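Researcher: We're teaching a course module on how sequence relates to structure. For the next exercise, students receive a sequence and then see the predicted structure as tokens, so they can try to spot secondary structure elements on their own. Here is the exercise chain.
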Amino acid sequence: MRRQCRASPGTPRRRGSSKRRDRANHRGKHRSRGSSKGLHNPRINNRRRRRHRHRHRSNHGDRHNRNHSHRRRMTNRLRHRRRGNRVRDRYITWPEMTWHVMQFTICANYLFMPQVLYDLAGRSSWLIVIVALLPACLGIWSACALYSRFPDQRIGEFMPKIVGRPLAILLGLLLAGYWYGGSVIDVAVFVLYSSTTVVTSTPTLVLLLLHASVVTFIGLLGIKTLVRVVDLLLYTILPFLVFMYFWPLFSTKLELDQMLPLRVSDFRPDTLQVALGMIGMYHGYHVLFLTGPALSSGRRGAALATVIGTLLAGFSFLVFTVYPLIAFGWPAVADLTFPMGSFLAIMAPPSASFPIRRLDFFVLGFLRLIMTIAAMTYFWLSIQVITDVIWPGRYRRPPAALTLALGIGIVVLGRYILGMPTLLALVQVWMPMSTATVAVVIALAVVAWLRNVNSTTRSGKRGASHG
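Model: And here is the predicted structure for the students to work with:
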């Protein structure tokens, strides 16, 4: 005999229920004893009770339902907007990040950095390359510390949480100016070397437009395009880098005694410039602020990529500085405009047994792709941080108008700095900005730790616990 499921006489009817729904519920429960959906199946009954209880607990009238639905729609809309401005896929491995950090650190330094270091410290200039790794440790620590607290956000997204939006805008514009200056310098060095060595008959304005267009085009396509271009150029650049590192070791033209003696007096005339150069020399870990949200291996991968990439860049700087010094001797090497290019010219294999007559042009032609990688990364960092601090959460990628305007600015500024004296003067201004950038990154990491801020913290609020 079927059991009648009726409410007790004194039980009040729950608000929001109807007779039709009650009859449907009772009809569903009046099943046979052996049915899997019957009344005596405890799993089904418990599920129904929980669903029924949740329905009547969460709905307290039509007004509450409307407010709840509106709040849910606004939350989903805001979540979709924030998600659209981030890198969703974790498609970068730590070896790829290591290669990017190395290339971004080298940038155009293999052409003009030896000349700058020779002017600063003379014969002892190669020692600066080694000592500069010490302040780089603080920068790497600060970048990894910020990444561990904000693994899914870029620097322009988490700066307002640390220092507030007004100061974040000011610091963001400072960082953008530094990165944009690096992009302009890389493009100018590219054009200057190409116009004086390889394509002397081509007007410099044409070369400037060509390289600025490439940088701007990558800026319009997106971060993933930048990462894939960096990966693709690995197979083009790496063989020539390895050749440049190890081929001169088999030559008899190198004299190691040219590196000595080391003199402290070489550093005294420009102590401040030497200090600024050492602090800001290794800055490849800034890549973590752009593509860190796409890194697949987390904090461990970020630490490995920044440390190994910086060490590889340091080895490259040592090669770029020491090889011309021990090949030409001091002070003859100080008179060369591009010491590394001149070094490769005398180190090339004999043309009778080697198919390339000007190996220095050929090798440096492929190594100039490093400058292209650095210029694109500098440019992307600048437009991305401006977009994140000025229009937070509004654009999925930097607006095209901003990208095109800054791309045109590269051409305009490049016209005024083409020339080695002007370019070196600009580098002397850019080096203090590099030092200030390192100080800003370290300060952000310290303030984030003191205020206990992480990715779940709202702007202007403190975190719940130390990360």
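Model: If you want an answer key for the exercise: The two ends are 63 Å apart (CA to CA). The CA atoms of residues 195 and 204 lie 6 Å apart.
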